[in-house]
Amino acid sequence: MAQQDDVFKKIVSHAKEYGFVFPSSEIYDGLSAVYDYGQNGVELKNNIKRYWWDSMTLLHDNIVGIDSAIFMHPTIWKASGHVDAFNDPLIDNKDSKKRYRADVLIEEQIAKIEDKIAKEVAKAAKRFGDSFDEAQFRATNGRVLEQQAKRDALHERYSKAMNDNNLEELRQIIIDEEIACPISGTRNWTEVRQFNLMFKTEMGSTADGSMSVYLRPETAQGIFVNYLNVQKTGRMRIPFGIAQIGKAFRNEIVARQFIFRMREFEQMEMQFFVRPGEEIGWFKQWKEWRLKWHKALGLGDNKYRFHDHEKLAHYANAATDIEFEMPFGFKEVEGIHSRTNFDLSQHQKFSGKKIEYFDPELNQSYTPYVIETSIGVDRMFLSVLCSSYEEEALPNGETRVVLHLPAPLAPVKCAVLPLVRKDGLPEKAREIVDDLKFDFATHYEEKDAIGKRYRRQDAIGTPFCITVDHQTLEDNTVTLRERDSMQQERVAIADLHKLIHDKVSLPSLLRKLK
Ligand code: ATP
Q: Are strands 193-196 and 87-92 parallel, antiparallel or unpaired?
């Protein structure tokens, strides 16, 4: 774990050093849990968003996009339940004065027990080798059974407390489990209180003429309140979806782990409207499609898992998370939820406007059911960054830091490098840049030795380097170096476009989703 922490720290400093992510307002010592994307970060982020957007709107002829405003009528958040129930239970340690989420403290305790079980299983697997039967071991080993029973009892007690919104019981669990504050090491806890995560501000200029509005905590409500507009103007027929990418804001109590949990972040959400009764089939379909989207990036199939929710929100009838293996464990990057007709019905009730769909095939009207896919851009960015980072030992004894970014997501697709800064090589290199730049993000670099320039491009994940040398002037060929294999081949300038395009184009990625 310590080693993993170490890797994560290196990734965070690499992200800063190479212009991917900076702490916000850094010259003023930063702003907690807010980050800025730098010159390379913004390109990577835009490419992730484009991959998602195109996979939704180009590959599905029944999905369209919108871009709704961040400010919305405050009653929307009353209708959606956010004013009354978008809370986290918080608890303070009286000695360290640190604030924690009570639910997270308990979940970490459950994870600790699960870790113990996993360790027992791994130990036994090593001891028994090929003949190891994991299911049998789990069902019969005394120590595992004891820990499993402990885990299940704690999980049940915790789920009940959360479901009943029983704050005293949450505190009691923390006391009974002897959970200590990691900073002070004491168990001197305050009461548990509910804390609403929405940011509030005033709209309008005068004190009495102004009204309180919220910064949206999710983009989804902008889709629900535009359901009728889009359905009517786009003449959409059920099933159909509306996609949106945009900023969301949550006043998170504990914001840790870099861009994993931020107070201002970006979401890519799609609400898919279906016939009542058909939602579970669609829920399964979207689980499959979304996992395929993730896996097509080639970050490693074993890095994903579904975490089906045992505790469902009162309006949901199925929910799962797609978790990704970050350096700090498997963590949620995307949620897929079957939200019934809760949101549309609530908006119908609160606005007094009829929100229904007339289904010509059934010859009847109904409030559509909804499957939601909701993914955080920043968490996706983090999963791509973490799984791409490598400190690679080279045969010559040196090490290089390389980002094995999926080529279509890389901020820079190719770098054109004149071998020396004279003899007409820079001019020739510029000619190549001027041709390629219309189709690919292309860098020109002439400073430092060629090896150093290769390393800089490796560090930002550039898939191709094109080196222009004296031979280029004679026969119009260049050296094309591939990032991961570091293989170099001599190719004609005329072939560059096709060679690069086949590897880095977004459609090459989208085609994998067919
Ligand atoms: P968590 O349990 O981690 O707080 P959540 O279940 O509240 O997340 P959702 O409301 O389902 O998250 O939001 C959908 C997606 O938005 C998440 O899967 C995540 O990728 C992203 N997201 C949510 N909160 C944050 C945040 N504070 N910072 C960055 N991304 C976030």
A: antiparallel
Ligand 1 near 332 CB (within 6 A): yes
Provide the H-helix boundaries in 129-237: 134-140, 142-163, 167-176, 220-224, 227-233
- Omega before residue 327 within 30° of 0, cis: no
Q: Which of 34, 32, 177, 33 has the alpha carbon at shortest distance from 102? A: 177
Mutate to test the pocket of ligand 1, among 87, 215, 379 (most ligand atoms within 8 A of CB): 379
The helix/strand/coil state of 289 is: helix
Residues with Cβ within 8 Å of residue 475, at least 6 apart in sequence: none
Residue pair 375/289 in contact (Cβ under 8 Å)? The answer is no
User: Which residues, other chains included, contact 199 with Cβ-Cβ below 8 Å and sequence gap of 6+?
Assistant: 214, 215, 249, 250, 251, 263
Report the alpha-carbon distance of residue 330 to residue 386 in Å, rounded: 12
Q: What is the DSSP letter of 197?
A: -
- 268-311 confidence digits (pLDDT tens): 999 999 999 999 999 999 999 999 999 999 999 999 999 998 77
Smallest CA separation from ligand 1 atom 1, residue: 332
Distance CA 333, CA 268 (A): 11
Q: What are 446's two structure tokens?
A: 């002439």
**CA 384 to ligand 1 centroid distance, Å:** 17
Q: Give, in degrees to the nearest 5, the angle at Cα 73 between 66 and 312.
A: 75
* Residue 388 host element (H or E): helix 377-388
Query: Is the minimum distance from the CB of 479 to ligand 1 under 6 angstroms?
Result: no
Mean pLDDT per 10-residue interval, the chain, length 514 residues: 80 97 95 96 98 98 98 96 92 94 94 93 90 91 94 94 91 96 94 94 78 95 98 96 98 86 97 97 97 97 92 85 94 96 97 96 96 98 97 92 98 97 96 96 96 97 97 97 96 96 94 92
CA of 376 relative to ligand 1 center, distance in Å: 6
Q: Give me the helices (H) in 20-141, please.
A: 39-57, 75-79, 82-85, 102-128, 134-140
Please give the span between the terminal C-alpha atoms of the chain, in angstroms, as a whole number. Answer: 38
